[in-house]
User: Fold this.
Amino acid sequence: MQYDVVIGLEIHAELKTKTKVFCSCKNEFGAMPNANTCPVCTGMPGALPIINKKAVELCIKAGLCFDCKISDYAVMERKNYFYPDLSKAYQISQMVYPICVGGHIDLESGKRMRLNRIHLEEDAGKLTHISKSIGSLVDYNRGGTPLIEIVTEPDFSSASEVDEFLKRVREALVFAGIADCKMEEGGMRCDVNLSLKPQGSKEFGTRTEMKNLNSFKSVTRAIEYEIKRQTEVLNSGEKVMQETRKWDDAKGKNMTMRSKEEAQDYRYFPDPDILPISITDGDVKKIKDEMPQLPAQRRAKYIEEYGLTAQDAKQLTTSKYVSDYFENCVALLNLPKKISNWILTDLLRLVKDQEEFVFPIDEKRLVQIIQMVEDKKVTKALGLELLELCQSSEKMPEELAKEHNMIANITAQQIEEILVKFISDNPKAVEDAKSDPKAMGFIIGHVMKCTQGKANGALVRQLVDKLILQK
Ligand code: ADP
Ligand code: MG
Ligand code: ZN
Assistant:
């Protein structure tokens, strides 16, 4: 039997705020265990939460990235369950009135993946299980830090669609400064809901939810494993059980975590300590005005308006820094293709520290070098030398070129003299040049060598033409 695959995602991302979402404790990774805690985020009786405006703004920003509708009225609710990493015995989340509703991402194929919602909630603490006799340790530093949860519609039908989608989500959240999305640090987590149905059938099958997927690769592997597992279950005439399954990346398989029967009733209700959130059109507009253009739109512009290849457009949008740098250059000198080549082949090479990624020279100086090469004031080789020189100097390239005697100031007469001597010394090469462009290149190269690359290329060509080819 052939089956259609149906997948829906629940994606959590840690928001980039300075403080937690319902108290003023620091939101940072890697502090001493329980250093960033207070009565609110450890759930002491009687402690009262406040709400972090920045977290609400970042959630709205995420909604704007994916064309969601921003609610004018949102409510924080209590999701009740007990687990030691959540000492309040409830998580503050959103149920009936989330901040963002709907939205979508269009994949490269044109297929539209719909979002159901994006809501704001708090993260739980972290448990470290030591041993049966000693027990477990709990660190509440992460407890109460802000998360967004992006819930999609069940629109995906393969691991590769999920992979592309997750990369687009991460790219947008990082670009817009909403989240760092470091999957290895748990900064972005994804749960995969997956079911199969007979090919072409309208009705959905029973789904499982897979947790503990902490890299893009493990998401893909886990999906492929689960498709195979469910196919075998169905083909053997059995039913897929609705359950939560835990992915074990080392073993390359998943296992039951809890079945539907064990599923909790969360008894959601509005948190009486937090007032409903009111969001005006003015609030949304203000946030929209601060948003950078997203990578997908930038790529489209680079390809359609600037005529770049898809590959180059992709490379230029790997980070906001590189993309902004490129656009600043284009604003100074309207030669996007040339600038793209310089950045991708000559400048990227010079970046030493991939962590603290910065180009060694600013846009103004790069553009001046490109301009000089385009005007044939210096050769490309000298342009590259200028790039090197700029790294250890604050001076503008034109000044450096003068100081290092690089500017093409060889006169036509000097070039003619070199050519005349060449003609009398190498009659054979001169004959060859009339029929063989390679030999012609050799003569031009000879003039360049004699002038240390400072002759104007166009002028040399013109004189070679006059003194050799026309003869
Ligand atoms: P719950 O609240 O129980 O987690 P939701 O209706 O919110 O259930 O759905 C959670 C996720 O599961 C969503 O991403 C949704 O797209 C996905 N989903 C729902 N039904 C199916 C199904 N039959 N197969 C695959 N994914 C599904
Ligand atoms: Mg769910
Ligand atoms: Zn706190």
Q: What stands out?
A: The pocket of adenosine-5'-diphosphate (ligand 1) is lined by residues 6-10, 151-154, 193-195, 204, 207 (CB under 6 Å). The chain has three domains: 3-281, 287-403, 412-467.
